[in-house]
Protein 1
Amino acid sequence: MARYLFLIPILPFAGFLVNGLAGRRLPRWAVSLVGCAGPTAAAVLAGLAFSEVAAGPASVLQASLGDWIRAGRDFHVPLALSLDRLSGVMALVVTGVGTLIHVYSIGYMREDPGYARFFAYLNLFMAAMLVLVLADNILLLFLGWEGVGLCSYLLIGFWYKDLSNCDAGIKAFVVNRIGDFGFILGVFLIFITFGTFELEAIDSRAAAAAARDPLVMKAIALLLFLGATGKSAQIPLYVWLPDAMAGPTPVSALIHAATMVTSGVYLLARLDQLFLASGALPVVAWIGALTALLAALIALAQTDIKKVLAYSTVSQLGYMFLACGVAAFPVAIFHLVTHAFFKAVLFLGAGAVIHSLHHEQDMRRMGGLFRRIPLTGAVFLAGALALSGFPLTSGFFSKDEILHETLSGGQGLLYSVGLTTAVLTAFYAFRQFALVFLGTYRGAGAERGDAHGGGHGTFPPRSPRGDEHTFPPRSPRGDEHTFPPRSPRGDEHGHGAHEIHGSPPSMMAPLAVLAFLALCGGFLAVPHFLAGSGETAAHAAAGTAGAEGQVTGWIVGGAATVLGILAALGLFVWRPALRERIVQGTAGGRLLARLSLDKLYVDELYDALVVKPFWFLSHVLFLVIDRFVIDFACVRGTGLLARTLGAALGRLQTGKIPSYAFYFVGGVLVLMTLVLWAAG
Amino acid sequence: MIPHLSLSFCLYVSAALFAIGVYGVLSRQNLIVILMSLELMLNAVNLSTIAFGRAFLPASPPDPSGPQVFVVMVLAVAAAEAAVGLSILLAVFRKWRTTHAGRIDMLKG
């Protein structure tokens, strides 16, 4: 099996090549087939490899294609993959959820002119993510790390005709670059300290190295963690993720919720011994907990259906880092897995809602959709329950395991932050559910017969046609069922085109599978499975010792969830008047609503602290360096100098023999003087 | 041998000749006069060479590589130079009908 390990990333990459190079000339069914075949095959292979690894207690599959980089005597990086239990779980999640989302995209992107391009990018992402997960050394991991960053950028700006989408893509790229800077410095330090890039070797030598040089180890851990905060959207670098929602919804589900953003958590879990030895874990824990709380607070009042989920993702990633921070790495991966399931459901469900409402994303213009699209509502409810951590759903187990580990690690303050966040999580999840699916329909189509008039929120609905000038506009077949109408806005009694409709089976089937996983995924004993690999046996032992505490934790966590859900339903379904009184009537409520809606002004803060000074500095440098030094002094200056000198010296060239003779004699005199002066 | 003809006297004469030659080249406008002044400078150099030879080399036996050889060489070159210079001068005169150096400024680009 190890021999086929390389096929796992190569198959999606082949899909990328085919769709990327020839996709525009292929019919759509062929693009879909190629696009989905790679990930599916990779999923099957990953499943086979995983079952092989899972059979033995500590078996690792390894494959090498020889040297990737070789320089000098000491520096060589093999092109090697390895699959152990941890990377196996990750590979299964990436390929499994990834395949489902590819299938979903067939329906969601059906009418898009960039259909082949979309699948090409998505496949490239899968390949890069699998390289990241399966890499045997940290440099190869970094290759995948940058690859997924590139795909993230490409897919956020997928609808590049809208400049705000491109801005979001650039923001994601630049913010990630800050984190990657830390990451690569960490890699340098690792090579200096350990003399190798191999992840296993680094991990096993970390404790000894930390005893020798604790400061360097701390620096390595913090630098790598900086990279993780960039990729996994933690304080202070989380600001790109909410904007990344500019991409198509399947992208938000796959990249910006289920897989790519968790790679920071994976990095920490991969190098768990290093982080344990470094003594940097309290930082990780606090950043995680604070991010969880902050993002949950912001999620409370967002009005865009995807923004709520984006902040929720940031918050849940915070939970994972909290788990890492209390040294419960297997639990972090457990939450990563369940989060991949339920957040994928939520995003794809939100995508189905958006699809049904012809690209309406503002929750204030939704409501009462449960009756119209009950299937979507049901899967969304499953996701929301799991996100809230409702008892016996997947999120319940993983989140309570995190809280339990935090408490048993003696971190009372972190625990209370986590528990508060749990209440908030349940609240915003069900606020969203209530706004979208319960109550009455408030959409524009209900009163005005125009589902597209407003265009407020960050997403103006894009035109379905002419997005890519390279494509001839599609024939109108099937338009009335799937896409915003081309019918004139005078269609006041909007029917047909404006009707709320269900989603095609290619979208609903993956949703159903994921909803099932979101509900039942908690029974996968991921932590114990990972702990079985021996790396974290101590923590597994500690986990079983605190089994009675676990039950108490379940009760407390369940109660927190139910409290949040009831509060949300109470304020948004049963007693909306009370909500108005709190938000409008009390100063605290007004402040909280304002702060939450405006995202705690973090973007403004960054704008004032980073962007504006940078802008100012750039402007100064532009005026001083570029305008004056380069343009004036260097470019125009040299020309001016040559011309002035030429004009002055040209006068000497009279063309008359006596003047030349005169210069000649003068020169001889000067030379003679010099020689005499030097000799004397 | 004339005892009064000391080395420094010869060098003074040579320097004077040379200076006159330089003056002639710089000040005169007639190309023929300029050529003549050049000859004057060459002969000033010849004179000093001979004088140095006389002062520092033994008179007998005569040294075949002595200063006389140089002087003969310079005279030959000067003759050649005069031939070439005069023929150029002839060509110049045919073209511009003048031997006035200030009028010939074709060297200017």
Protein 2
Amino acid sequence: MYWNSLSDFFAMGDHGLYVWGSFAVMAALMILEPVLLARGRKKLLERLRRQYRAEAIERESPRRAGTPEARP
Amino acid sequence: MNWYRFASPQAFYPLAGRMIPWFWALAAIFGIAGLVVGFLVAPGDARQGEGYRIIFLHVPASWMSMFIYLVMAFWAGLGLIFNFRLSHMMARALAPTGAMFAFLSLWTGSLWGKPMWGTWWAWDARLTSELILLFLYVGFIALQAAIDDPRRADRAGAILALVGVVNIPIIYFSVKWWNTLHQGSSVNLAKSSMAATMLCGMLLCALACWMYAIAVSLARARRIMIEREKDTLWVREEVMKEAKGGM
Amino acid sequence: MLRVITAVIARDLRLALRRRADIAAALFFFVIVVSLFPLGVGPEPERLREIAPGVLWVAALLAAQLSLPRLFADDFRDGALEQLALTPPPLELVALGKIVAHWLVSGLPLALLAPLLGLQFGLSGEALAMLAAALFIGTPALSGIGAIGAALTLGVRGGGVLVSLLILPLYTPVLIFGAGAVEATVAGIGAQAHLSLLAALTLAGVFFAPWPVAAALRIALE
């Protein structure tokens, strides 16, 4: 361990602002990107599910055709 | 092993889904290890004090921004030649992550420059080329976003990526030449011999960024796959399967 | 082979002559942008002389890409491009002809006009000659690279701004060596190296650009 105290670590030899400024933005973006991706994916899946269900109902009501899920 | 089998989105989608958690785990392990080595173990730099520790963030981000462009151009070229849908999707999935790393490289470089050079921005050859690289990413993303037909968007983007990758060395050397001619604005980062622990921390952080980029781009590629092929049977099955699996 | 190129050039020049106003607009844009700079930075002759090469070159880059969105758009709309793609001569040659024609109506007039504007910035006779020479040698590369952007954005919404976004970053080497040649002359050092590199960029640009242009046109025509 290189540091003597926690405050030394945060001060980074008077360069704390620059070091932690870099760190914070990098960490934030690298967390934000996957979070946004996961959210977008969830929304997309929901939208598709709704669409598929609507299609299935439409298909079944007039002539009760086979659904695509019938295939194994 | 038949690699062509995985060239179809249908086969690749579940495979990528299984691989992503592993890449996340690797990214986390390498990231924590790299940060521990870089921020806790490595000694301060004689010339630059503690501010040099930005290197553990800046250098991996710069490397990744350049490397991702190369990989993107590789997939784009592959897609153009063999007409694989999958490789076009990979190219498209990589671009936002590459642009993010280019931005991070500029951001950390600027924050490093302030204590070291006394200025937020220097028209240094590397920073300037990185800025142009960011512009190239933005152009690629904007072109693909502007074209509605996905097939055309893929192939137009691929041509642009290839043109860009041919031009990057030319741009880099011209910027470097320009920078050495204008001595007044050039700044030389003191080349201090790097301690083994520093190098180790930097490589670990770079590996973490690499694994992160793979995980994120695979996740994005998966999303592009279902979006594009939403009318096919396999996407229907995958989507419904995941609905049952719970969220 | 040469016949195809000259035929395309002659046709494009004829069309351009019918729309002289477009050429004039681009040239006036160049004049206005350049003239705005002294108003922005102040009239001190020293400073103006210093920024002149860069200002003139940047304004030339912007002016040269103004006409790019129309490079293929008219032929695309009236179906001429489709016919050209179906005829036996390769589309690459057509692209080359188009690039040359574009240079003749955009780059060349800029090179001829630039020394006149350089006078406003107090450049010496030698520097003015170098400015014209550098623009003369460098602008064909701009037309070549620009044609790639024009072909890629053919028929795309917001094509005009998009072209700038795509190609301006790729213009940087030309800008660096072009403005560098003039600066070197102002500073009294030889501009030989700059001009050689500029010529290399132009040769590479004009020689290689037709392939991506033709590929992009084929994609747009599908």
Protein 3
Amino acid sequence: MNKLLIVLMHTYKTRIKSKAFITTTIISLLLIVGLTNMQSIIGAFNDEEKITIAVLDKSGELYEPFAEQFKIAKVEDLEVVKANKSEQELIDKVQDGDYDALLVLQKNSQNMPEATFKAETVSGAGWIDTLEQTLQQTKTVLATKNLGVDPGQVAEIYAPVSFDTVALKDSAKSEEELNQARSIVYVLLFLIYFFVIFYGSMISTEVATEKSSRVMEILISSVSPVKQMYGKIFGVALVGLTQLALIFMVGFISIKSAAKGEHSGSTIDSFSSYIQLDQLPISTVIYAIVFFLLGFLLYATLLAMLGSLVNKVEEANQVITPVILLIVVAFMIAMSGLAAPDASFVTITSFIPFFTPMIMFLRAGMLNIPIWEVMLGIGILIATIALFAVIAAKVYRGGVLMYGSATSFKNLKKALQLSKK
Amino acid sequence: MSLNIESVTKKFGSFTAVDDLSFNIPEDQIFGLLGANGAGKTTTFRMMIGLLNPTMGAITWDGRPLTEKTSHVIGYFPEERGLYPNLKVSDQLLYLGRLKGMSKQEIRIQVKKWLERFKVPEYENKKIEELSKGNQQKIQFIAAVLHKPKLLILDEPFSGLDPVNVELLKEAVVELKREGTTIVFSSHRMEHVEELCEYLCILHKGKPVVHGSLKDVKRSFGKKNVTVYADFDLEYLQELSGVTRFKKVTEGAFLQVENEDVSQRIFEMISKKGFVRKFELEEPSLNDIFIEKVGASYE
């Protein structure tokens, strides 16, 4: 069997069997299941806590129209009850917890409804606004009735205006498309970001561990450094992809089953409505995979190189910090680019190799940019990876033989000298 | 099939680690590479296995340079022991064996054989970090010989082992030699080298200072050791011409003389002086030669 494959399989097997992998996978799977079923989870809690509001109608005329408006508004978890007791008695009941709140309705001097809301606390509850809006509507209905306007006409007045946006430029996406693309790109950018940071630093730790345990000397006498380095990079990438595949699979099944179980529109938007799997454009998926893999390769090569320069695992974190910062910067630019994907700084940074994976993907996903731009970005990326692979292989070869004070970038030069033929 | 080192020089920047080193290790021989710390032994070994490239000169095995492609020919036991601390012994050896091009089954057979031989078959499923240092060393040795290398390089194989395990390892080395393995090893313990090596080379600051078969080296050294136990004071002997070293011991003195004539003269002198309980003339030990050549007291 090819030695690259042996290194790859060894890295894969030991990593996949490790406790760290198993725990992180289980935790993220639980998170995914939780997130996709957020609605049912919240619903389960809400069923028990239907909010009951006692309404004391001092005017004797307001409750009926108010309750009617309330019905029209279709507020799920609120319930209004007409109360016929004195205000003080009702306040006592609210304090005892029999009711959640008390709404006192009366007419003011202009014969218009007004209300006083009384509850244990009046902060933080979104449903107070709902009550206010309902009362506002009640008032509108009453006022227009007083003026002798037909309720049908009122409804006409308040019907929402139709407002469509049409992009004239060919390359522009419609607002709706853009929003959808934005959410997909957003999720995928996050994925690239986490994957590269998490698995990239795993590679440098792995290399540093091998070096500190001095296995490297034996390994490197049997396998060429390039094969060893890439065996490791691909092995770790495979571990990451396994984890991603699991997450996607569970996520997909979970979203599907959550969508099936969705029976009524709730105030909380379900996670699945943000990500419309069926509407994911195929080109975006392909771009995501291509840039994901290339971005990982670029950063992994860099991180493996840096990992070979240090002696101890603890030192690995220090030397990889600049690279991690680069990823963070790329992510920041991408995040601001989400709002304005056609800004010139986004265009420029999309051709800088360290940023290309995220930003070119952002542009490709959100704009209709010419294909040659994407290809140019990929080309630059591949060329950079090749360049770093050559340098990294040399540094790796020298670096693994170098013991002594690390963490300075002078070591890079030293390692290169050591590897000279 | 011999290892040929031809005027090899290795420089790290302005520092010369190995300076114009040449020797030939015939097949089926055990070759000892000696030298003080920093003499260039490990650098030489690393060049042999192709980890480093010589600045000048060439190292060839069977007329061809050693590269990654010939790595299955070589077994390497590094001075800095290197194993994965949290891998099981069997997984560890499986991985290293596979990298040397062995099949899984072959590895399993060999691992079993060697573990039994070193009397540690119960360690097969233990993690390296759970083993004592001496036992880790045995596993390291197995990793070096698992694939039946033609050329075995042992960098300080016996350091840190108890006498029983040293014997165990020595026996294994001798047997490997009998089976046709060419062995190069370095050690600080001269008695191990004297016991095992036919050929040796002493490095000093990267330069070979002594080189040849053990017998020739001793013969050409010329100097002899004399041990005298007598009832009277022997201090005056150190003033004698031809005495190169003098060391007072409890019962008498230990001397190094230039040749046998000098020892004869001493014998005549002291026999007149009084009662001599012991007079012994010995071949120089490798330790003496080493100290003399490297010029530093060493273990």
